[in-house]
Amino acid sequence: NRIPESGGDNSVFDIFELTGAARKGSGRRLVKGPDPSSPAFRIEDANLIPPVPDKKFQDLVDAVRAEKGFLLLASLRQMKKTRGTLLAVERKDHSGQVFSVVSNGKAGTLDLSLTVQGKQHVVSVEEALLATGQWKSITLFVQEDRAQLYIDCEKMENAELDVPIQSIFTRDLASIARLRIAKGGVNDNFQGVLQNVRFVFGTTPEDILRNKGCSSSTSVFVTLDNNVV
């Protein structure tokens, strides 16, 4: 039931692997994570971790546009009460970020930041208590203008984006911006350990959660959502 590694079918984009950071290198240190079959990295200086190559980022943008959304998976052990960026799409001219996913340990939220026509919009998933110093697994499902977050097997409140995600991931995005892992704005670099940071396409959140062993929990969610006791 393991999610396949990044291949030529563009269904899974392993960000550490794509950046070339799935090996030893500057800015991160190899450590043990909950999944013994893949590397985990303590982030020491996200500024030194290279971006995803333009061609691979273009493939990712194309996949987001084709499916009008994405599934983002990650395992993280974030330092308590810190604010840390998991992923960010930053402009190559250093004029700011186009899109970012930030675990805001100070507010207890997961923040999605989108820049539309030069104006920043931030949407927060409340009660996303990720910065606890303990391992957490997230499944973030973004489809058009809505976002649904699962932490481990728990379904959080959904959030609505101000614009559809495919209007952020424009066709020419890879030519003007690049995708960075753990690197945020000023003082927003991720502090802690990351593992299995992946964009996944061609599947559903339910299948992902089932593969994580959450089948009993997801059936409870369906029951509660339908107001059946």
TrEMBL record:
Top-rank taxon, per record: Eukaryota
Keyword Signal: yes
Record-linked Pfam families: Laminin_G_2
Keyword tags: Repeat, Signal
Domain Thrombospondin-like N-terminal: residue ranges: 6-203
SMART domains named among the record's database cross-references: TSPN
Protein name, per record: Thrombospondin-1
Lineage: Eukaryota, Metazoa, Chordata, Craniata, Vertebrata
